[in-house]
Amino acid sequence: MSSQAATRSWSQTLGAGRDWRRRLLLHHAPLALGSAVVLVLFMNLSTFNANTYGVADLFTGRFPKEFDDSAGAAQHTGPPTGTTDHGGGQPPAQQGGEHGGGGQAPQQQGADHEQNIGGGQTGAVEDGGGRASERTLLGLGVRQFTFASGYVATVLLGLTLLIGPANLLLRRRRPISNYLARDVGTWAAVFSVVHVLYGVEVHSSITDPLPMFVRDGSPLTISFGLANWAGLAATVIVVGLLAISSDFALRKLKARTWKNIQRLNYALFALVVAHAYFYGALVRLDSPFTLLLGLSVVAVFAGQAVGIWLWRRRYARTGGTLAQQPG
Length: 327
Description:
Blueprint: H1 2-11, H2 20-44, E1 56-57, E2 65-66, H3 92-100, H4 106-113, E3 126-127, E4 130-131, E5 136-137, E6 140-141, H5 142-169, H6 179-203, E7 214-215, E8 218-219, H7 223-243, H8 247-253, H9 255-262, H10 264-278, H11 288-315
Antiparallel strand pairs: 1-2, 3-4, 5-6, 7-8
Helix pairs in contact: 2-5, 2-6, 5-6, 5-10, 5-11, 6-7, 7-10, 8-9
């Protein structure tokens, strides 16, 4: 009896399988509901308020660091108000300092940007005609929603990297394409894109994101710029993976090529962690978002280590193929 149960378990895989209606009911509906609940909690619980944690200096070097409070605490409270052009931005002479991190004292640069993607800073950004902590996009607070959507996407991305090891641990079949991982990845991609759109609105504008990446014709290599470049690379990967997450793409690309491209998921996760780091996540160790990021990293590394160990133990003697490796 136990042998039959083990055989039946090994013939199955985690998730609802290929049937679209079962996937809609057992994958997409719970993922949508669960993500919405977490998003609401992130947006409304005071513990996750992005304005209650420290400020990181992202504009005076390639690595984020704490502000030197002795240089003037008054400069941490937010940007000075001033004349804006008809588009809601700074006059041309000030735009370099506003978006590029130059032309102002370091602490004032930090106050003018007050980054919020990587891990919870205080203050506000005056951009597009109002402070970022007060502005809304599609009815949602820009700054807080950027935090919330980014970390929902991070958790979902981490889950996609744990499904393969979980199949091995539970002695389930591991097909080339796991529909549960594909559906979780779809929601991770959706929240990632939403996070990017809101994040661009915090630091610049959707219609003019270039100042987040380039200043005076050269790529920004301060911490702020590196964070944005890492985020851009992650966005390209996640959109590309979403584009080939279909049976049609699997047939066209063939199994081995498709699987190798899908392994960019590992690079994607690394870029997400780098994005958060350069936005100062580790400067605010008291932030629950930083704790969530750390737990995600530990879970993914532990899951992958267990998966690799199980794969070697179960497949090495039988000549397991590359496509059967954990991932």
